[in-house]
Design brief:
With 638 residues, the protein is of the alpha+beta class. The protein folds into three domains: 163 residues, Glycoside hydrolase, family 65, N-terminal domain (Beta-galactosidase, Chain A, domain 5, Distorted Sandwich); 404 residues, Glycosyltransferase; 53 residues, no CATH class. The longest helix has 22 residues. The model has no long low-confidence stretch (mean pLDDT 95).
Length: 638
């Protein structure tokens, strides 16, 4: 629910003050539910005498495709019409070039005193100290609702709140000793609830608003991964949806190949017509190995063998894609090269045109093997081996483990660069390393492919002044040729990137690094509007008394940014799960200075549920079970 308080300025008639400012109060409340925007205006006269005012709504619709909004031009559009179907409703109709009939219906309650194709006017007689209400619904449903807008508002509100309660019933909740951080967590969870959409396969977190309000493969996987300890049901929905939309044929215009996992799907007019290639688009090199990684992590978190059995054919298809299509030249690394001019040139998570380059700033040419993608493949093979073992395929499991070990050796030999004390961002089409210091190397730590001594060097590098802005780790170090703190991928700070790096640091036991990183990101969130971490913000150096610089067109909310605080908390606590033993493990738990206590309620493991309190005492953290249902237990490695 968005609520806004409004009031009037001074109104004059012929030089005489007829309505002093701050006399009329309007409380405007809006929420979205099932293809409808509901709005209520509660209008109150605080004066001791009556007033008559006109309140007008001006409206228009253009049915612009989201890609038109972003700047794509179209030579031709479909047919558009407007009609006042009743004395309380206006209907905008559009028949697209794809022959799909779309409609938007605006309904008012009570009946306006004047209504035409672009304006509704209410003449309100407000008695002293009295209140009245107006209701408006804007619906995209094919069949208009017969109820009045007022009744629709309250019915929709009850349904929306009930659905939110049901949707959150299986998730753990977190409360801390820091009131501001509690606001950050509440905002994150509320945004994730808003972005989460029910599909035929379960819940799926849409990527972000406004540009990415649809299912993205990589975004959904990483969001689910960050939330896995809180709510594994999201991961199950993501995995099942992506399995249902896994490519089964080769279509170069959509970058589709058998076994490949979806990059994004769009249902707008331009996508349906092929004016943009994103109807079902598969142009990501990392979504496929990440799909296998998430399946393995989900199994580790839940022990849900039934779901893994259901998904196993999709996991095997993804592994075949990695070996047959991902590694076209047989060098043991997974690369990409765009097959369609209309698609993405770069197909890792940094998918800007200029985001992969050499030390002199020259753009790398494909096929390109990104360092973090090799880590995802390594982790995918290891997770697949564990799932294969659970499914009784010991021979396959042994083969996958051998492949992972061999890949680790190849990776160290090809990607490590002594001269920059980190891993090359990528290998280009000539197998020449891009010797550029980037945050990609931080995500290498997430997968465990990095040698421990080299992982320590990477962790130290990421928190020096070249990378760490004071708010978070930049995508590119300040000294690199294409560094630009205002760019999308070449020097900005992305919360999800920092969270994945924190999880990687936890894998190697770099506790102090995590706490510093977590503190910076918390400080950034404290400055943000609504305590909401956006998709990204600029990478300028932190200055006293000044917050982070916003990136103007960042999505807010963005699912994987909203999930980042939960992943950072997991990294600090060293959280792991053993569903077979119904055991929650805290490996070297630590809390940053801004947190004295963390209370985790309704944390589920197997058939058990626990409320767990963590308290910081200097550098030590104690862990206590406050309440428990079932046989679950905890273990703590100090």
């Amino acid at each position: 629910m968005l609520s806004a308080d409004l009031t009037n300025p001074d109104f004059f008639d012929g030089g005489a003050l007829v309505l002093p400012r701050d006399t009329i109060h309007i409380m405007r409340s809006k929420f979205l539910w099932e293809a409808t925007c509901y709005e209520r205006l509660a209008i109150r006269n605080f004066d001791d005498r009556p007033h008559t005012i006109n309140l007008s709504f001006v409206f228009e619709a253009d049915f612009a495709d989201i890609f038109e909004v972003r700047g794509h031009s179209r030579r031709k559009r479909g047919r558009f019409s407007i009609a006042t179907d009743t004395d309380t409703a206006v209907v905008f109709r559009y028949t697209g070039l794809d022959s799909v009939k779309r409609r938007t219906t605006i309904q008012f309650d009570p009946k306006p005193d004047h209504l035409d194709r672009h304006i509704a006017i209410f003449e309100l007689n407000l008695e002293p100290r009295k209140r009245t209400s107006l209701f408006v619904t804007v619906s995209c449903q094919e069949t208009p609702v017969a109820d009045t807008a007022g009744k629709q508002f309250f019915v929709g509100l009850r349904k929306a709140r009930r659905a939110l309660r049901v949707g959150a019933s299986g998730a753990a909740s977190v409360e801390t000793s820091n009131a501001v951080f509690n606001e950050v967590l509440c905002r994150s969870m509320a945004d994730l609830s808003m972005l989460k959409t029910e599909t035929g396969q379960g819940p799926y977190p849409y990527a972000g608003i406004p540009w990415f309000s649809t299912a993205f493969g990589r975004d959904g996987i990483i969001t689910a991964l960050q939330l896995l300890w809180v709510d594994p049901g999201i991961a199950r929905g993501v995995l099942r949806f992506l399995a249902a939309n896994q490519a089964t044929e080769t279509r170069p215009e959509a970058e589709a190949e058998p076994g490949k996992i979806l990059h994004e799907t769009r249902r707008g007019e331009m996508a349906r017509l092929g004016e943009v290639p994103f109807g079902l688009y598969y142009g990501s090199v990392d979504a496929t190995p990440l799909f296998v990684v998430l399946a393995g992590l989900y199994f580790e978190r839940t022990g849900d063998l039934d779901t893994i059995t259901e998904l196993w054919p999709n996991v095997e298809a993804a592994l075949r894609w990695i070996d047959e299509y991902g590694d076209r030249d047989g060098d043991g690394f997974v690369e990409y090269r765009a097959q369609s001019e209309a698609g993405l040139t770069n197909q890792g998570w940094k998918d800007s045109r200029d985001s992969v380059f050499h030390a002199d700033g020259e753009l790398a040419t494909g096929p390109i093997a990104l360092c973090e993608v090799q880590g995802y493949v390594y982790a995918a093979k290891r997770h697949a081996a564990r799932m294969a073992t659970a499914l009784g395929s010991a021979v396959l499991a042994a083969s996958l483990e051998e492949q992972a070990v061999a890949m680790k050796d190849r990776f160290e030999a090809a990607f490590w660069c002594d001269e920059i004390s980190t891993y090359a961002m990528a290998l280009d089409g000539d197998k020449a390393p891009c010797r550029v210091r980037t945050s990609n190397a931080g995500q290498v730590l997430l997968t465990g492919i990095a040698d421990p001594k080299r992982a320590a060097l990477v962790a130290d590098l990421l928190l020096d002044r070249e990378f760490y802005s004071g708010w978070g780790i930049r995508t590119v170090a300040r000294s690199e040729a294409r560094y630009n703190p205002m760019s999308y991928h070449n020097g900005s700070v992305w919360p999800h990137d920092n969270a994945l790096i924190a999880l990687g640091m936890a894998r190697y036991g770099f506790t102090e690094h995590i706490q510093r990183l977590f503190s910076g990101m918390f400080d950034a969130a404290a400055y943000m509007d609504l305590r909401r971490l956006p998709e990204l913000f600029c990478g300028f150096r932190r200055l006293p008394g000044k917050g982070p610089t916003s990136y103007p067109v960042a999505c807010a909310p963005q699912a994987w940014a909203s999930a980042a605080p939960f992943a950072m908390l997991q990294a600090c606590l060293g959280l792991e799960f053993d569903p077979g033993a119904e055991e929650v493990r805290f490996n070297h738990p630590a809390l940053p200075d801004f947190l004295d206590e963390v209370l985790i309620r309704s944390l589920r493991i197997g058939q058990s549920r626990m409320d767990i309190m963590l308290r910081r005492h200097g550098s030590e953290v104690t862990v206590d079970i406050l309440e428990k249902e079932g046989d679950g237990r905890i273990s703590v490695t100090p």
